[in-house]
């Protein structure tokens, strides 16, 4: 009986993990596209309105993109 | 920190896409900082939420029987903080780059809507027929911000600076610029209604 319950919960957790992992990967992939759009957007905005802060904002946008790629790597490696 | 100010007089290092060589930017305005409190508060809550979950982690595990493996917790935290940073960055960019510019020749309204749409409107000082400002509501009275409505003679019959700081001062300065441009002193008495009595 104990073994059956343990096997059942193991199967449940496996099913959930099989379901959650691809969803997380798809989400992060979508997020990388969003981060790319932000990089493009900051470049466009800076072309329309140039300010002293534009280079810093561009750096933040690139860091955001790099961060999202890093998170994808982490998700692929640890999950 | 004039780079982050909502109202900058004679800003240094600012130039815009359609600026002419002999054109000087006199004022640069953004929405008043109070209007950012909504997304700033939400962003702060988003940043603090994982800490609450860490503190209540034992309760969730023991009382509700919810158990998440360490790797999934790390992944969830990273994704959550990335998403929170993106949310704050996007809102900041929208506030920072949506500006109203007053130059010695014209008024320029730079608008970015979301990620994919931009609109730049401009109005020559000569075409302005009427300038009004309005303030309403507790927040606008307390923090002294409001709208400046500029009626023009063109097809786009009015121009609006929304929720900018010190709208009365902006109205006064625009009128002074037009008077200077036209070389007339009768403008403020005849063509313009001063004050917030826009009907």
Helix content of chain A: over 70%
Radius of gyration of chain B: 23 Å
Structural class from helices and strands of chain B? alpha+beta
User: Mean of residue pLDDT of chain A?
Assistant: 84
Distance between the termini of chain B: 37 Å
CATH topology of the largest domain in chain B: PH-domain like
Query: What is the CATH class designation of the largest domain in chain B?
Result: Mainly Beta
Which stretches of chain A are low in confidence, meaning pLDDT under 50 for 5 or more residues running? none
Spatial strand sequence of the major β-sheet of chain B: 1-3-4-5-6
What is the string of SSEs of chain B from the N terminus onward? EEEHHHEEEEHEEHH
Question: How many domains make up the coordinates of chain B?
Answer: 2
Please report the number of helical segments of chain A: 2
Structural class of chain A: mainly alpha
Radius of gyration of chain A, rounded? 20 Å
* Helix run count of chain B: 6
The 3D shape of chain B can be described as elongated
Largest sheet of chain A: none
């Amino acid at each position: 009986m104990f073994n059956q319950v343990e096997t059942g919960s193991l199967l449940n957790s496996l099913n959930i993990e099989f379901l959650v992992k691809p969803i997380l990967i798809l989400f992060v992939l979508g997020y990388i596209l969003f981060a790319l759009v932000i990089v493009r957007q900051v470049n466009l905005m800076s072309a329309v309105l140039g300010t002293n802060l534009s280079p810093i904002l561009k750096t933040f946008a690139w860091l955001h993109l790099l961060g999202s790629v890093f998170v994808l790597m982490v998700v692929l490696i640890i999950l | 920190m004039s780079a982050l100010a909502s109202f900058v007089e004679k800003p240094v290092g600012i130039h815009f896409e359609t600026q002419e060589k002999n054109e000087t930017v006199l004022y640069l305005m953004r929405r008043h900082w109070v209007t950012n409190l909504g997304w700033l508060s939400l962003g702060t809550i988003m940043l603090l939420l994982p800490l609450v979950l860490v503190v209540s982690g034992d309760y969730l595990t023991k009382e509700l029987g919810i158990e998440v493996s360490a790797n999934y917790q790390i992944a969830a935290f990273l994704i959550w903080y990335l998403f929170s940073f993106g949310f704050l960055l996007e809102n900041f960019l929208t506030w920072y780059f949506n500006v109203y510019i007053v130059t010695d020749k014209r008024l320029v309204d730079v608008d970015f809507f979301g990620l994919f749409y931009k609109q730049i409107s401009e109005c020559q000082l000569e075409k302005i027929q009427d300038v009004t400002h309005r303030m309403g509501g507790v927040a606008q009275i307390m923090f002294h911000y409001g709208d400046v409505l500029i009626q023009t003679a063109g097809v786009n019959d009015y121009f609006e600076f929304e929720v900018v700081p010190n709208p009365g001062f902006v109205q006064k300065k625009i009128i002074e610029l037009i008077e200077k441009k036209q070389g007339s002193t009768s403008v403020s008495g005849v063509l313009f209604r001063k004050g917030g009595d826009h009907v």
